[in-house]
Amino acid sequence: MTTPPVASDLNLCLCHSCGLACDMTFEPHECERCGAPLHRRKPNSLTRTWAYMFTALVFYIPANLLPVMNTKMVGNGADSTIMSGVIEFWQHGAWDIALIIFIASIAVPGVKFVALTLLLVTVQRDSQWALRERSQMYRFVELIGYWSMLDVIVVALVASLVKFQALADIEPRPGILFFGLVVVFTMLSAMSFDPRLIWDKERQKPLNEEVTDEVTSH
């Protein structure tokens, strides 16, 4: 069974800047239209993805242990971590804000860490398991990455609401900085991963099988 050719079979590469299909025959490999460098695969994709993810994981610990804000009511101040803030909002009936903070600050980074680790390990092991589902998982990681800053936005909204009260004040704490770094590095990690690596081994498999069949027939 013949399969349609892919870009590499035709010696073509898609420019990541302007989307032009460029001929890779001649050096240097630069886009004819915008001059951007061309790469068949993202350079050092796995190494950079691992590095960004481990960096995000390191920042994830102080982001959850250190206070993210300090609330002063009638002169009495109290620091709040992400989890204690979730509990406090829930106890005061603001379950919607508590749910948003929990999903954005606890669940989303955790899901991204697990999903990226699974993608990296399976690609490095040349796994043929659930190729389509792994591609969909990567698109899901990209999608939820856009909502990772919800927690920072909620803290800003809460701060603006508290400021309206004459006897109340709110100040950010170092935890919010670490959480912002977690968001940045998880997004960089997802951007560094090349999902085409998932399918590379699958493309080689039919070619190897065809060669084996030809040898056997002779």
From TrEMBL:
Broad class of where this protein is predominantly found: membrane
Location within or outside the cell: Cell inner membrane
GO cellular component, as recorded: plasma membrane
Membrane-traversing stretches: 50-69, 97-123, 144-164, 176-193
Keyword field contains Disulfide bond: no
Protein's name according to its UniProt entry: Paraquat-inducible protein A
Presence of keyword DNA repair: no
Keyword terms, alphabetized: Cell inner membrane, Cell membrane, Membrane, Transmembrane, Transmembrane helix
